[in-house]
Amino acid sequence: GAGVSQTPSNKVTEKGKYVELRCDPISGHTALYWYRQSLGQGPEFLIYFQGTGAADDSGLPNDRFFAVRPEGSVSTLKIQRTERGDSAMYLCASSLDGPRTLRFGPGTRLTVL
Amino acid sequence: KQEVTQIPAALSVPEGENLVLNCSFTDSAIYNLQWFRQDPGKGLTSLLLIQSSQREQTSGRLNASLDKSSGRSTLYIAASQPGDSATYLCAPRNYGGSQGNLIFGKGTKLSVKP
Predict the structure, then answer these.
(1) Which residues, including other chains, have CB under 8 Å from residue B70's CB and lie 6 or more apart?
(2) Contact B101/B92 with Cβ under 8 angstroms?
(3) Band of the pLDDT at A100, cuts 50, 70, 90?
(4) Higher-confidence residue: B87 or A101?
């Protein structure tokens, strides 16, 4: 596609529920990144994939957060037992050959009531 | 732990002015530093990337400088235009960190008035 797409654009859920956020990277981009941005803050790194494998998952805050990229293209960020503090904009990015070519999607705004 | 501070938090200028946005970081052991802009409702756009061995990078009306030893970077915008209105974020990458593991500041929200 022309750019990175993320679905849904908005997600409202109740505390304790499970949610999945999807990211479609630019075709051919081997690297994929997830970030979380709370209101008034800069993005916070969560996880980075190179191909199908997680090259760096040091930013995942706890074991309620998990991400997959089974075929090296689409990625899904999964959050179990959501908490109000998980409310944020979740940003996905992809790149072909490193950070210089980083392209971000528009984000998914998650609200946990 | 790397901490990134951006000053000012917000800036409003008339069109045509030259301006400087500041970024400071506490750990000078960085691999590179990137500047991004973020438009409301949209993702981030990478503007400039400076390697730790470089002093500055230029792209059009934008010039970014890096003084690694003092933990500072500046983004200079020449002849500002209303289309430059956005939030500008700096993000160093620490040595030992993966290419996605960027540490972002809170940003400077720029408003350029016609």
Answers:
(1) B28
(2) no
(3) confident
(4) B87
On whether the CB atoms of residues A86 and A60 are closer than 8 A, the answer is no
Q: What is the pLDDT of residue B41?
A: 78
A51: left (phi over 0), alpha (psi -120 to 50) or beta: left
The reply to whether residue A99 touches residue B32, judged by beta carbons under 8 angstroms, is yes
Query: What value, to the nearest 5°, has the Cα angle with vertex B46 and ends B41 and A52?
Result: 90
3-class secondary structure, A24: strand
**Band of the pLDDT at B97, cuts 50, 70, 90?**
confident
Residue of B nearest to A49 (CA): B100
The predicted structure's pLDDT at residue A84: 97
Q: B46 Cβ partners below 8 Å, 6+ apart?
A: A99, A100, A101, A102, A103, B34, B35, B36
User: Among B43, B31, B75, B49, which Cα is nearest to A43's?
Assistant: B43
**Cα distances (Å, whole numbers) of residue A45 to A51, B11, B39:** 18, 26, 19
Q: Least CA distance to A6: which residue of chain B?
A: B43
